[in-house]
Amino acid sequence: MKILKYSYGLLVALLVLATSCTDFVEPRIPYKTFDTATYLRTIARTSDSFNFFDLQSSKFALTLEAVDIEDGATVSTVEIRVRHRRLIPGVGLEYTPTNDVLVKTLSASDFGPNPNSRFLRTSFEVAALDAITAVGLTPAQIEGGDTFEFRLVLTTTNGRVFSSDNRSSDVAGGFFYASPFLYNVGVVCPTALGGTYAFSTVVTNSPYARSCEGKVLTGTISLTPVTNSTAYTISDGSFGMFDCSDSGWGAGNLRLNDSCGILNFTGADKYGSTYTFTFVSNDGKNLVFDWITTDNEASRTTLIAPAGFTWPSTLR
Asked: pLDDT per residue over 149-165, tens digit each?
């Protein structure tokens, strides 16, 4: 019995030893014949927005790197396709056309070596006017806030196709891969209204201090840009009125918004009252507007452009 147990134990030990010595990376899986993919790493987004005020000069421009097992040599063509997108309030997204259309094609010859990596790279641009024409619209039909969806379709030399519909989330958004195949190019309205302005305010209604009505108040306010936004905080959103009727502006967080030239207020004063902006006129030197609060405090204010600055003619 002891001999049997000893023999059985020896057999188990030999099996364990044999298994531990086997290279588990060498099973019958054909690693060398795996079919590898190709993707386009985004190296630089040279221009990824269209200026609503200068569509003539706007463009979509990228630098891409073709990454594959042959250092980029498997690329045959890259189609650049586009469609227009607009958010319709109360309705949803409207696409023109429904399916994207071809606006430009890159060939293998457009990719070349670069001094920073072993992979082939290309740089390209698509003029805003070309994109607008491709989707069947005219510049007059474009609005601030519109978006152009640019989709890349890569075809390799062996006929495989890669685009936004068959890439993984890691390839699309991962820092290393950075290959979304889909780029949203917004129609933006650059704004530069930050600064200090003299103001003149005529109080038209002051329910809490009737003595202020009819007075002309003067002073200065500052518009401070909100980071990555077209909004500006206002150092005194009452434009002097609270200095007359109250204890000053205090902790108000009113903002002036420039939405492609359309001005409006958001936020509130220290009492939680919100403001309505009504454009009156703009002659480049004087920006005139009426405002009224939900507490029925109202005035007409003129913001006076400082030397060397002109109010944009697009403001309204």
From this structure: 999 999 999 999 999 99
Same topology between domain 35-188 and domain 195-304? no
Task: From residue 244, give the alpha-carbon distance in Å to each of 202, 302, 304.
Answer: 12, 17, 21
Is 298:276 a contact under the CB 8 Å cutoff? no
Domain borders along the chain are 35-188, 195-304
Q: Is the preceding peptide bond at 89 cis, omega within 30 degrees of 0?
A: no
CATH architecture of 35-188: Sandwich (2.60)
Q: Is 129 exposed, middle or buried (0-12, 13-18, 19+ CB in 10 A)?
A: middle
Structural contact between residues 184 and 145, judged by C-beta atoms closer than 8 angstroms: no
With 0-12 / 13-18 / 19 or more C-beta atoms within 10 angstroms meaning exposed / middle / buried, residue 249 is buried
Question: 315 is written with which tokens?
Answer: 């403001």
- pTM, rounded to two decimals: 0.70
Radius of gyration over every alpha carbon of the chain, rounded to an integer in angstroms? 32
Q: Is the pLDDT of residue 231 over 50?
A: yes
What's at 161, amino acid-wise?
V
Phi, psi at 114, each rounded to 5°: -145, 160
Q: What's the Cα-to-Cα distance from 262 to each of 47, 55, 206, 249, 257, rounded to whole Å?
A: 25, 18, 27, 25, 8
CATH 3.10.580.10 holds for 195-304: no
CA torsion, points 153, 157, 160, 162, in degrees to nearest 10?
-30
Token pair of 296 as six digits: 């029925």
What percentage of the chain carries pLDDT values higher than 70? 87
Separation between Cα atoms, residue 233 and residue 312, nearest integer Å: 19
- Residue 67 confidence (pLDDT): 95
For residues 203-232, average pLDDT? 93
CA nearest 37: which of 133, 188, 155? 155
